[in-house]
UniProtKB/TrEMBL annotation:
Recorded coiled-coil stretches: none
InterPro entries: Homeodomain-like_sf, HTH_RpiR, RpiR-like, SIS_dom_sf, WH-like_DNA-bd_sf
Location of the HTH rpiR-type domain: 1-77
Keyword Transmembrane included in the entry's annotation: no
Identification of the protein by name: DNA-binding MurR/RpiR family transcriptional regulator
SUPFAM superfamilies for the chain: Homeodomain-like, SIS domain
Source organism: Lactobacillus colini
């Protein structure tokens, strides 16, 4: 029997309406492939907008993408021969393919900022720390002045070096506010070259940044702290690859 609950991100923060939609999908996963969003809303005595918000909270662009990914999940797990490893790889490949849809304008602005900036600061905490340091090391290899940090102590020491001619990049899986705001919000708001890289289109911390680049795969990224590290690294490869 397929454990449909594994399809959803871990540690969900659901409103009462979200909880009602979640339980309905868990109870009738197969039915979701053929039902309209209007029918779901009607069956649950809620609004179409509420169902759309639920799908976006799960990491999808809307109900249509949610249904497609749910159907793929059910197919990949319906046969006994499909191993957990195979399911993971299928999901990972699906997310990677979506990287072609990353905001081209935002990516171009970041590339230009990296090229023109005097100094580049690349920060991230916890599981976002490794990609932040990887970007800094890659830029240093390209003869740029770059600093990378994965902890608040180093960030607090580096921020006095930051000026308006520099670029600051913060990697954050969820984009939620935390203690890092204390050290960087006053500085980055003075700069045109501040970028948040996140999986969450509704990130609360994006108000401190001039630019936000949202990576695909929010639902996939939220399930495990390891997954988004590799996706961040894939983004860095796209960002720093030299054009031939």
């Amino acid at each position: 029997m397929i454990d449909i609950k594994k399809f959803f991100p871990k540690n969900l923060n659901l409103s009462p309406t979200d909880e009602k939609i979640y339980k309905y999908i868990v109870k009738y996963p197969e039915k979701m492939q053929y039902i309209t969003i209007e029918k779901v809303a009607g069956n649950l005595h809620t609004s179409v907008a509420s169902v759309q918000r639920f799908c976006k909270k799960m990491g999808y662009s809307g109900f249509k993408e949610f249904k497609f990914q749910l159907k793929s999940y059910l197919i990949n797990n319906s046969h006994h021969s499909n191993s957990e490893q195979g399911r993971y790889l299928n999901e990972y490949i699906s997310v990677v393919k979506q990287f072609n849809n990353i905001d081209k304008k935002g990516l171009s602005l970041l590339k230009k900022a990296l090229h023109k900036s005097d100094k580049i600061f690349s920060f991230g905490l916890f599981y976002s720390g490794l990609p932040a340091k990887m970007l800094a090391f890659t830029l240093i290899d390209q003869d740029k002045t770059a600093f990378g940090s994965d902890n608040l102590v180093n960030i607090s020491h580096l921020m006095p070096l930051y000026s308006k001619n520099d670029t600051l990049i913060l990697f954050s899986i969820t984009g939620e506010e935390n203690d890092i705001n204390t050290y960087i919000n006053d500085n980055i708001q003075k700069s045109d070259n501040s970028f948040l890289i996140t999986f969450n289109p509704d990130a609360s911390i994006k108000k401190y940044f001039r630019h936000t680049i949202v990576l695909p795969g929010k639902s996939f990224a939220y399930r495990s702290p390891i997954d988004p590290q590799s996706l961040f690294c894939l983004f860095i490869e796209m960002l720093t690859a030299k054009e031939e």
